[in-house]
Amino acid sequence: MLADTGASGSGEIEKRMKPEHLFIILVQPQGPINIGSVCRAMMNFGFTQLRLVKPTRHYKSLLAKKMALTSFPVLENALIFDDLSQALADIHVAFGTTRRFGKYRKKFFPPALAAQKIHEDYQEQSCALVLGPEDTGLETKDLDLCQHFITIPTHDGYPSMNLSHALSILLYEISLKSDAQIPYTGPLPEKQATGGEIEGMFAHMKKTLLDIDFLDRQNPDHLLRTFRRMFGNTGLTSRDIKILRGMMSRIDWTEEQRRKYLNVHEK
Fold first, then answer.
1. Per-residue pLDDT tens for 60-84?
2. Residues 6 or more apart whose Cβ sits within 8 Å of residue 255
3. Superfamily assignment of 2-175 in CATH?
4. Start-end ranges of CATH 3.40.1280.10 in the chain?
5. CA separation (Å) from 46 to 22, 88, 172, 241?
6. 102 φ, ψ to 5°?
7. Helices of type H across the chain
8. Which residue from 204, 209, 259, 263 lies 20 to 30 Å from 228 (Cα-Cα)?
9. Quick one: CA dihedral 11, 174, 2, 4, positive or negative?
10. Domain with CATH 1.10.8 in the chain
């Protein structure tokens, strides 16, 4: 599948990986809760191809279902294998996840570079992310079946990651370069205040602060320059100006009522 990213003006169409080309393989997963969480992480990023190698007997238990929620169909459709070699039989390239820096494993990809590798070299081939048991990780015999290795740099004080958390990091990076990418739509930028709006606000501020004797009448601009610096650094929007002027209008009204009250009682 080809997706036009519109990123370049050359009219070139960028090839992107199909989500169905990525397979998640869990080797001997032990806990139904973790398996359910993995399904949820997969659906979060648009991937559905799950394979399990010798999973726990209770891999479809109520605990797994509670964790998977609406992603439970991923688990229901998962393929089950007796060993990793069978699970990889129709896969072109496998990325094994590990922290074992062995003699014959020289090059490890962090998640972002692994995603880039898949995007550049294997986008039209079937790829697998292979994750081992929660307590021990992949064994050497399993890693021998993988062509590439991924490691997630973590703090030495607690290097072990939860299965679904580790997978989420990997899938996030891969989804950015695949057709599974969910376009991010952030909040629309608010209209920046014009020079006229800003100067009108400062004129209002000067009058209000003079009326309540907050500014020195001999040199009111001295303190106003501080306000200009404070607000100038924030990039005021038109809405900000309306709120600030609304606040000062309220101060104006309160001061007016105070003076009326004093005038009545002084008489």
1. 999 999 999 999 999 999 999 999 9
2. 208, 211, 212
3. SPOUT methyltransferase, trefoil knot domain (3.40.1280.10)
4. 2-175
5. 10, 21, 10, 42
6. -80, 170
7. 32-44, 62-68, 72-76, 84-87, 111-121, 140-143, 163-175, 195-211, 220-232, 238-266
8. 259
9. negative
10. 195-266
CATH class of 195-266: mainly alpha
Q: In what order do the strands lie in the sheet with 148-150?
A: 79-81, 49-53, 22-27, 127-131, 93-97, 148-150, 108-109
Structure tokens at 84: 């990793």
The residue-averaged pLDDT of 211-228 equals: 90
Token pair for 97: 């996840």
* Bigger pLDDT: 14 vs 91: 91
Residues 6+ apart with CB under 8 A from 136: none
User: What is the SS3 assignment for 27?
Assistant: strand
Is 211:255 a contact under the CB 8 Å cutoff?
Answer: yes
187 against 214, higher pLDDT: 214
Residue at 112: amino acid letter: A
Predicted confidence band of residue 1 (pLDDT cuts 50, 70, 90) = very low
Provide the token pair at 186.
């952030």
